[in-house]
Amino acid sequence: MLMPKKVKHRKWHKGRARNKRIATRTTTIAFGSYALKALTGAWVTSRQLEAARRAMTRSVKRGGKIWIRVFPDKPITTKGSEMPMGKGKGAVDHYVVIVKPGTVLFEMDGIDESKAREALLLAAHKLPVKAKIVTREVR
User: Which segments cross the bilayer (predicted)?
Assistant: First the structure.
């Protein structure tokens, strides 16, 4: 699973304005010919990304090339069940990536369009965001 090797701060604040803004970075296809683009915003966990990646890889029978354009670097903490209030912030449980609408999540190349669409659709079912499949515009 994806997680940072080393972090500057072990625990982060939640942040504000969740799912309100649209993405300004990673909005275009940079590497492949086909991509999966988020239409809604959510926190996507490293487990969900790995499940989507596995579904794509198995669908194309390890053919072509897949790029993951997002990385889960935000730590999410959890306290134990039945813990009383107080006693500080919990331990880091898992990592997420903040996905905004318009973010390109995965890219593919090296296979025909029908197989790529099928693989990206399988990956989209594993993610908590609504997504669409986009293709590179040839100029």
Answer: none
Tokens of 49: 């990304």
Structural tokens at position 25:
């970075």
Instruction: Pick the closest to residue 56 from 128, 133, 115 (CA basis).
Output: 115
Q: Is 21 helix (H, G, I), strand (E, B) or coil?
A: coil
The pLDDT, as a whole number, for residue 1 is 87
Q: Could you tell me the two tokens for 50?
A: 């790995």
23 near 42, Cβ under 8 Å? no
Give the list of residues 6+ apart from residue 85 with CB closer than 8 angstroms, or none. Answer: none
Domain hosting residue 54, numbered range:
34-80+88-135
How many domains are there within the chain? 1
- pTM of the predicted model as reported, rounded to 2 decimal places: 0.92
